[in-house]
Amino acid sequence: MRQGRARTVRHPRHVAIIMDGNGRWARARGLPRSMGHRRGVEAVRAAVRAAGELGIEYLTLFAFSSENWRRPKDEIEELLGLLKHFIRRDLADLHKEGVRVRVIGGRDDLSADIRSLLEEAENLTRDNSRQTLVIAFNYGARDEVARAVKRIAEKFAAGEVTLDALTADYLGEHMDTAGIPDPDLIIRTSGELRLSNFLLWQAAYSEFVFMPCLWPDFDRQSFEDAIAEYASRDRRFGGLSREIAS
Ligand code: FPP
């Protein structure tokens, strides 16, 4: 994955994607939903490659939400199987390309084989620095906040922290995303206009781009279009617009 373009102020450092529309993509072709998810994995590979080429330092992908357990059992099995297959097949290549893998989401209720695969991916790639791929798996933002509060409560109970230290920054340091900058840009495909319990804390100042295309159709051009839309926005972070301030 080459850094094809220098990052500018208007270039996002961290892009997070809600990959939506696999089922509709399959239905439109008279195919089973599983085919949509399989094509979705191809789009994942293309997006990771494109992010590297476009100089995106952090790419977060919403692969499986804490609410996705409500889906039919066979679809859950398919999604878990695809994740396992992706890590087994692609991990060596990702490592070779200098990609660091981070996983956010609850681990405790995952099966031992998935937990150890996720740990293997993180451990093997932990010193890579070219690009970070954050996989949100069994992830829900409210769960994440609860996990962070629990971690802090444990430190508090152990006398390791005082009430005065409990700032927003301190809470951020206990989220699953500790050490990862907040997303500059959040993309959602398939035309849905929701955040769906994704990165609620980290999205405080993110720009949103909602695209009509279904996830399996998301390609390099779609990625570039979303970045161009981001570049046209005036990010103020509560301050004044560029025009007024200058
Ligand atoms: C939404 O489509 C997509 C998902 C629930 C999961 C996304 C998963 C993948 C792309 C494959 C696995 C990921 C990795 C990282 C290997 P949907 O099923 O909600 O589509 P619909 O709204 O059209 O029914």
Automatic annotation (TrEMBL):
Tree of life domain: Bacteria
Swiss-Prot/TrEMBL GO biological process terms: polyprenol biosynthetic process
Protein name (database record): Isoprenyl transferase
The entry's keywords: Magnesium, Metal-binding, Transferase
Cofactor binding comment, as recorded: Binds 2 magnesium ions per subunit.
InterPro entries in alphabetical order: UPP_synth-like (IPR001441), UPP_synth-like_CS (IPR018520), UPP_synth-like_sf (IPR036424)
EC number(s) stated in the UniProt entry for this protein: 2.5.1.-
Catalytic residues identified in the record: 20, 68
Recorded family membership: Belongs to the UPP synthase family.
UniProt-recorded Gene Ontology molecular function terms: ditrans,polycis-undecaprenyl-diphosphate synthase [(2E,6E)-farnesyl-diphosphate specific] activity; magnesium ion binding
Cofactor field: Mg(2+)
Residues reported in the UniProt entry to bind substrate: 21-25, 33, 37, 65-67, 69, 71, 188, 194-196
Entry annotated with the keyword Lipid biosynthesis: no
A GO CC annotation given for this chain: cytosol
Enzyme superclass (EC): transferase
Chain sites annotated for binding Mg(2+): 20, 207
Protein role: Catalyzes the condensation of isopentenyl diphosphate (IPP) with allylic pyrophosphates generating different type of terpenoids.
Subunit structure: Homodimer.
